[in-house]
Amino acid sequence: MIPDILFNLLTSRWLITIPLLLILQPISAVTLPAATKKLVGIHEKAKYFAYIHPPEGLAEMIDWEKVDFRHDSNLGDLYQENKWAMPFCSVLGAYAYFTDDSLIQVNALSMLKTQFVLDLAGPFKVTKEAKAEMRELNRVHPLSSEVFYENSFVAFGATCPGEVFRSKNPTLENTKGMHGAFMFYR
């Protein structure tokens, strides 16, 4: 049901007429305190979240010469009327937020400066066990944009908050990623 809701959002708002494969990481509980949720632009009623990988083929459907990257909205929420959320979703992905029974918000990751800042820590070196288990669980997916290829990255996956792999923390620095993490693969 959740992928249907997301697909309907993409097709109605952005007039995308061909099917897109939406890949969501496992749904997890939101781990940020209420005050932090407000600061980073997460709906106050959000209880769960999942990272949405950039939909394969979406970047090719966008006429990049017509994309207006001036942020006319302070939100990257795909429900809002802005011109840059879907293009950034096609490259960087998005976070979907849920209550107990419904989707309430989809925030595209963005490189634009907005009033909402979600700082990411790292980079950290990932253990062989974590990399292998992410692949075994089919949670590693090709990067959709060539912009990442300059650093030799070809794929990535998102971990859940505090996730461990084969009873070990995912990084050589022994950090857990208490709110989740991205793993990039070369």
Description:
With 186 residues, the protein is an alpha+beta fold. It has 2 domains: 2-108, no CATH class; 128-185, no CATH class. Helix content is 22%, strand content 16%. The chain is built from 5 helices and 7 strands, in the order H-E-H-E-H-H-E-E-H-E-E-E. The chain has helices at 2-14, 34-40, 58-61, 85-92, 128-136; strands at 28-29, 48-52, 94-98, 103-108, 141-142, 155-159, 181-185. The strands form 2 sheets. The protein has a 4-stranded antiparallel beta sheet. It has a 3-stranded antiparallel beta sheet with strand order 5-6-7, with no helix packed on it. Strand 3 and strand 4 form a beta hairpin.
- The overall strand count is 7
What kind of sheet is the major sheet?
4 strands, antiparallel
> What is the terminal-to-terminal distance?
33 Å
The Cα radius of gyration reads 16 Å
- Which sequence of SSEs, written as H and E, runs from N to C? HEHEHHEEHEEE
Percent of residues in helical segments? 10-25%
Overall 3D shape: globular
Q: List low-pLDDT spans.
A: none
> Main sheet: which strands, in order across?
1-2-3-4
The count of helical stretches stands at 5
* Global structural class: alpha+beta
In what range is the share of β-strand residues?
A: 15-25%
Mean pLDDT comes to 77
The figure for the number of domains is: 2
